[in-house]
Structure formats: structure tokens, C-alpha cells
Amino acid sequence: MTVTSVHDPSHREALWELEDAFERGDLISVFGRCTVAYEGRAASDLGIGDRLLVLKPDGAALVHTDEGRQPVNWQPPGSEHRAAVREGRLRVRSTRTNPDETLTVRFERVHQLSAMAVTGGRDLTLHGSEEDLRTRILERPDLIEPGFEPTATERPSSAGPMDIFGVDADGTPVVVELKRRRVGPDAVGQLARYVRALREELGATAEERGDGGDDGGNGDDGGDGDDGDDGDDGDDSGSDAARDDPSPAVRGILVAPSITGRAAERLADRGFDHVALEPTPED
Amino acid sequence: MTVTSVHDPSHREALWELEDAFERGDLISVFGRCTVAYEGRAASDLGIGDRLLVLKPDGAALVHTDEGRQPVNWQPPGSEHRAAVREGRLRVRSTRTNPDETLTVRFERVHQLSAMAVTGGRDLTLHGSEEDLRTRILERPDLIEPGFEPTATERPSSAGPMDIFGVDADGTPVVVELKRRRVGPDAVGQLARYVRALREELGATAEERGDGGDDGGNGDDGGDGDDGDDGDDGDDSGSDAARDDPSPAVRGILVAPSITGRAAERLADRGFDHVALEPTPED
DNA sequence: ACTTGAATATCGTGC
DNA sequence: GCACGATGTTCAAGT
């Protein structure tokens, strides 16, 4: 039998079953009326009530109520489970170190305890990720725009690896930033950093192209333009003329299913483009 | 009886119990051998294996394996659960809209099904949050430094609401940014945005205050003064002169239990201070 | 071990 | 409903 199960056990009975299940490495589910106390990175106390306690052989512990996706209390994998009967009640305690954390569940009454030996079934395949989006574009670059040609993925730069690098129909370098779902202004900042990094890297070329790559205003401190900040502080308009250049040396394209209004504003400010595209084709 | 439980039920038997439990608004736990398919914001498929399915009356659904704190598949609250027997197997499906998402669990075999009517016990008290840290400082402002006086919390600015705003012993405006745990450079950037916004707002006043009054230091180790700036954000380069002013019109203080080395460098670059403080007093 | 960044993040709050 | 920030975020990957 792969599953053991007891209904309305005594505390001592529940303890025996728990210890056996620990020994076998079972996945355990306990329904019962209990209090919960946690102390570690923070601290919390939960009064008496009906809850579901899940104990995993890898050390994870979860306390669920009847609401919410998140457990009301938990312990991450790597913790150690112990059970005991104290003051006539079943007490389950899960501890770990680094940081030191303790989760204690005290059962006033155990309604149902089940344990199952789990085998196999770890082959999860996830689709619709950012990688799918990249694959889709590499197979059909015209989804970005006619004439676009990808030349590298994860191309390194001083601002980190960029998702897709390529050239457009005019031979202008293009940085493509991929997001698998609707994005806000932060994604525009990320794209701006890559573009700036590439403009600096290709600076000489830009000069030759006669497009006046750098504005004369702050030419002295040449690496420190203020438009590439990560956060959302770039709201001051008109701080640079270069971004309004009609033919910038490097283009930026943000690929995402949709973008927020604020993000659209920033894209326009910087002269970047948005291409609406889903990780997988719509039905 | 508040708990119903069936061991090794037939698929039809399991269906009856499930539908009854849905009707009663029970918290449900199902052990069984199953496949899982999800389609929505992403898509995934999970081959056959032993898992624990948790169904909540608020619409949440969780599929847990024997590993990890996170469910391998799930559906958030607000979804609708339905059960049926198809092709001789129990099928549980949870759907929601906006976005459209579907989670389907097909049981080859149900080992154990339990359902419990949950009552009460929603009074969770959590300690050690950022709000605790704010409360602690407002009650004892001298923890920041002698003479510090908070004047507002969540004070608005063009960069968003700042955690605590106040004045130091010299009457200089102070922006305090709170973090409940160890922080990296991003927190310094956040603080810098607030300080810059306030400096702009109070610009005229700052010009007049050009006296030589300097802070007495707060006794912690002074940051090294190296200028090895990597310039990957440079968020306040616009007001360049103000940064090096020995008596800036606005001070910035980052309150956190500890900070990373890179964050310390940036703090020093911008002339900000760090105060080491926990959300709750150490024992 | 520390740091960085993504997630089907989730969850609250404010607009 | 949308956007933004905090979370005992968790988690994987890179350094």
C-alpha cells in the first residue's frame, strides 16, 4: 500500500503515523484544529483554527487555511521536521538554520492524517516563457519588422547580455529586449541601458555616420549620460537632445504582448519602438 | 462531522465526494496519481505521477509534489472548480478569466480524498515588517541619530512617497528610506531619487543655506572615498555640483539591518548615511 | 556563499 | 481595473 491514512486519531496515534511517514520519506497531509507560531526572519502567531498542514520529505512545510494561494505559514525546503506529544497535544515543529527559523504547529485535535510515498513525475515542461519568445523571433525575424536580421543572442555588453542583437533593413544595429508579458516603465529603462552601452561601444562608428552621435552639452563627462537609469526617475523631460535624433546609431525595440501607458511615453521619449508579440502564437 | 474522508475511492465515488465538498465550501486535499496541464499566461504539462491536489473554497488550487515550497502548478483565488468523470478517470478543472487560465488535473487513480469545513482562525499577527521598523523609529527617533525629528511619513514627492521625512539637529531636511532586511545598490538608487526630488523642490532654499555647518558624523565606519564609479546608473549627474557639497541641502539616510559592499560604495559616493537597525529590537 | 534577476510570482494599497 | 511596491517573497543562475 502506498498510502496510509487515519481518521480522527488520538494524538499518540497521529504521532506514530507521522514518525513512520517521516521515516519512509512520505508526502504528508494533516487536517486539524491548531495554533501556529513562527519565529525567524520575522515572527508571527496564529490563533486556534482549522488548517491543513503539508509536510514534504525535502523539509518543506506548509500551513494552509481556506483562503489564498500562499500558505499562511511555511518553512522552506531543507528544514527538519520533528513531532512529539506535549501536554497531551500533537506538536509538529520544523526548524532550519541560516537563518535560524522555527515553525511550530500545535494540534488541539487531528481530524485526518494521510501520507503517500511519491514516485516519479518530475518532468514538467513549461511553454510560453521568454525563451519561447526568442525562439519564435529567431525563426521568423520578420515578426519584428521586414528586413530585420538577428545576428546574436545574449550578446554581452557593459550593461549585461542583451536578449537579441541584430541589424535592420538599413544596416542599423538593433537591440531587442524581450518580455513575455505586459511590461511597465522598468523594461524601457533596461532597454535604454543596453542601447546606451552599445552606442558607447560603437561610438566611433556613429561619428563617422555623421549623425552627431553625442550632444555637445555634457561632452566632458562622456560615459555618464543620465537617461539609462534603472528606476523610474527619468521623468524630467528634455534633459538630452541626442535621444530625439531622427537617425540614432543604435535602435531599441521592446517586444512584449502589451505595455503600460507610462512605458509607452518613455519609449517615445527615447525614440524606441514597441512590437506587440506573444511568446506563443495566438489561437 | 466536520471532516469527510475516503480511501481508495472509485472515480465516481471521488466525484460525489468532491461535488459535496464544493457545495459545502470545504478545504479539500486529494492524493493521487495524475497528469496536470496548465494553459494561460504560460502553458505547462506534467506527466503522470503521485501528487497532492489542494482545492480551496475561494477558488485557489494547488498541485504539490514531494519537493519545493512552491506548488508545481496552481490556480489563484477567484477561480472556479469543477469535477467530472471523463474516459473513466476523475478530472478536476479549475478555470478563471482575466486572464483566461485553465488548470486540469486528470487522475488515473485517487488514493485518498479528504475535505474539511474550515471555521475561524484568521487572526494572523505578523511582527518584524517594514511597518514595525517605521513605528520603532517614530517612537524613538534618536535611533537614527541624536536630534533627528520626523515630521512626516509617506510624504509625497515627484519620485513617489518617501518612507520618513524629517530634520536633523541642524534643521537640515532628511529623507529616510526603510528596508526591513539586508539591501543592495538598488535601495541606494531609490533613496537618491527621493533626495534629488526634494533638492529640486527646495532648490531656492538650498542656495541660501550655503553655510559651513557640517554634520558631526554618526560614529559608524566612514566609507572609503574611492571614485571607482562604474557609472551604470548615474542617476543624479544632472545636479552634479550639489552632490559634492559638504553641507548638502538635503540628507539621505538608509535604514536597514545591513547593506552589501556595493551599496556601501554608492552610499559613500552620494554622501548618504547608513543606520543599522532591525525592525524589532534584538534580544 | 553572495549577488543578481525572473516569476504563471502573490498580495495589498492607492489612483 | 491598472499600476506600484513589499514579501519571512521563492527560485535558478552566475560570480
UniProtKB/TrEMBL annotation, chains A, B:
Keywords, alphabetical: Cytoplasm, DNA-binding, Endonuclease, Hydrolase, Nuclease
GO molecular function: DNA binding; single-stranded DNA endodeoxyribonuclease activity
Annotated Gene3D superfamilies: 2.70.180.20, 3.40.1350.10
Biased composition (Basic and acidic residues): 203-212
GO cellular component, one term: cytoplasm
Region (Disordered): 140-166, 203-260
Compartments (UniProt record): Cytoplasm
Entry-linked Pfam families: NucS_C (PF01939), NucS_N (PF21003)
Function, in words: Cleaves both 3' and 5' ssDNA extremities of branched DNA structures.
Family statement drawn from the similarity comment of this UniProt entry: Belongs to the NucS endonuclease family.
PANTHER family xrefs: ENDONUCLEASE NUCS (PTHR38814:SF1)
HAMAP family referenced in this protein's UniProt entry, alphabetically: NucS (MF_00722)
Record protein name field: Endonuclease NucS
Organism listed in the record: Halorubrum aidingense JCM 13560
Gene it is expressed from: nucS
